Structure formats: structure tokens, C-alpha cells
């Protein structure tokens, strides 16, 4: 899955999303920020077979928002993407952050 494909999955939640950072265009809460953390190529018969990509998707909300978390998890499930998540709690600035760790191929 490419960065653009992951963007479409995240955008399907209706929650504003951006790659790496919002900068001056911060849309407020809730919002999603995502980045690629790791990629690894797998080979077979001396040829590249597929690439595994590990992402971090951060959901920022005003307090823990299980409905917003559910939207993200539902979007991943609909796209066939496996993702664990971890409610991280309050972050500087007062927002609550939940981190998702999807793996795509």
C-alpha cells in the first residue's frame, strides 16, 4: 500500500488527515497524522517478492474518543489492513493521542 492509498483509507473516516504534520493548517480536533516508520522488502527466487510497510497513525482528540478510534479501526478493516493501537493519553497542548500501527503489503 502506498502513502496515497493509506491517505485514502484514513480520509474515508471523515477525520482530517495529513502526512507527517499539519503545520500552519491545523484543522483542530479530531485530526490524524501519519508517517511511514519502516519498510522491508522480501525476496524469493532472487527477486523482490513484496514490500512490507509499517506505519504510525496518530489520532488527536479532545479526551479519549472511542467513536473516532472506531472509525479508524473500521476503515482499516474495510481496507483489509491489520492494525494494533495504543491509547497514549494526554500530549503537550492538552489533546489526547491514540497511536495505531498498521502494517501494509
How does this model look, in words?
It is a single chain. By secondary structure, the protein is an alpha+beta fold. It has one domain: 2-Layer Sandwich (STM4215-like), CATH 3.30.2000.30. 22% of the residues lie in helices and 48% in strands. A 5-stranded mixed beta sheet has the order 1-2-3-5-4. The longest helix has 14 residues, at 66-79.
Cα shape: elongated
The assigned CATH architecture is 2-Layer Sandwich
- CATH C-level label: Alpha Beta
Q: What average pLDDT do the residues reach?
A: 92
Strand order of the largest sheet: 1-2-3-5-4
CATH-assigned fold name: STM4215-like
Put simply, the count of helices is: 2
By secondary-structure content and strand pairing, the structural class works out as alpha+beta
The amount of beta strand, in percent, is over 45%
Radius of gyration (Å) = 15 Å
Low-pLDDT ranges? none
Span between N and C termini?
A: 6 Å
Number of strands: 5
> Tell me about the biggest sheet?
5 strands, mixed
State the helical fraction: 10-25%
Order of helices and strands: HEEEHEE
Summarize the structure.
With 105 residues, the chain is of the alpha+beta class. The chain has helices at 3-11, 66-79; strands spanning 17-19, 31-44, 47-61, 82-90, 96-104.
How does the SSE layout of this entry go?
Layout: H1 3-11, E1 17-19, E2 31-44, E3 47-61, H2 66-79, E4 82-90, E5 96-104
Parallel strand pairs: 1-2
Antiparallel strand pairs: 2-3, 3-5, 4-5
Amino acid at each position: 500500500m502506498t502513502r496515497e492509498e493509506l491517505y485514502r483509507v484514513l480520509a474515508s473516516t471523515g477525520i482530517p488527515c495529513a502526512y507527517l504534520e499539519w503545520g500552519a493548517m491545523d484543522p483542530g480536533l479530531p485530526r490524524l497524522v501519519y508517517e511511514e516508520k519502516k519498510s522491508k522488502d522480501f525476496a524469493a527466487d532472487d527477486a523482490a517478492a513484496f514490500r512490507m510497510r509499517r506505519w504510525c497513525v496518530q489520532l488527536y482528540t479532545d479526551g479519549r474518543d472511542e467513536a473516532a478510534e472506531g472509525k479508524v479501526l473500521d476503515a482499516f478493516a474495510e481496507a483489509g489492513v491489520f492494525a494494533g493501537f495504543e491509547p497514549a493519553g494526554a500530549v503537550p497542548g492538552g489533546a489526547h493521542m491514540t497511536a495505531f500501527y498498521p502494517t501494509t503489503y
